[in-house]
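Chain entry —
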Amino acid sequence: MRRIFPLAAAFLLAGCAGSSIGSLTGGSASTSPRPKSIVVTDFQFSPDVSAVDRGYTTRLERKIGGFPTFERKPRTLERVNEEIVASTVATLRAAGFEAQPGGPDGVASDGSVIVTASLRATEPVAVTNKPKLVSDQVGFGTGKTNVVADVKVLSSGKRQLTAFDADSGGARGAAGNAKQASAQNAVIASVLAEQNAAPEKLSPDVEAQARRLGRSVAEKVLAFGKEQGWLEGAPVVETPPAEEKPAKLPAAKPPKPAAKKPAAPAVPAAPAADDAEPPKE
């Protein structure tokens, strides 16, 4: 019996230590305070993810001059990365968070959160010595767009808060009406300027793929934030109501003239006294 009690106490202490270690290593089980800002870092691309956008490279060469063919993929991947990050940041800002692009090393330990991700093919790509056709490649602007992002959300102290996968199979377009979509595009353009991105735009299909993936990443970060209670303290951005113009009433029609009553028939006047017949005797 004397040996049992010390063993039981040891097990209890080990259990407490294990629970404290679990809370420090991070995870979605424990709540975390609302971050002061969210920093989205550059996405890392695995070697099996390609980016083909001849229209973009042509426009880029017109500006900076020709460059070797082997530089097309890295230059296009760099521009795709900037588009994904910008779309992620813009979606987080629309939800009321102070989000910005940046690197993990420049994040101050003031309660900020870091979003980082690496991109890979959904299924392993067979490695061959033969050059692949565009239709056989996996990535952006290629025949196969089965790309998934392995995302991690870290605290400013590099403690992992959660991790998840995201792909471009989510929302196909910006939510809301045309006015909101235009505002979202303006925010994305602003974030691209913050990254000193090339002003040359990606082709529409490649741009759409990159933005869908960015929105998918942001939506899952927001879903995690909702579990943590971050959205409860988010400022509500209200759109001012449109100025109401007084409705134009139709001009009042002039009243219809009253119907004329038919004139009464003339009554013959009574004969005068002088004209009256004398009484008969």
Remarks:
- Residues 1-29, 236-245 have pLDDT under 50 and may be disordered.
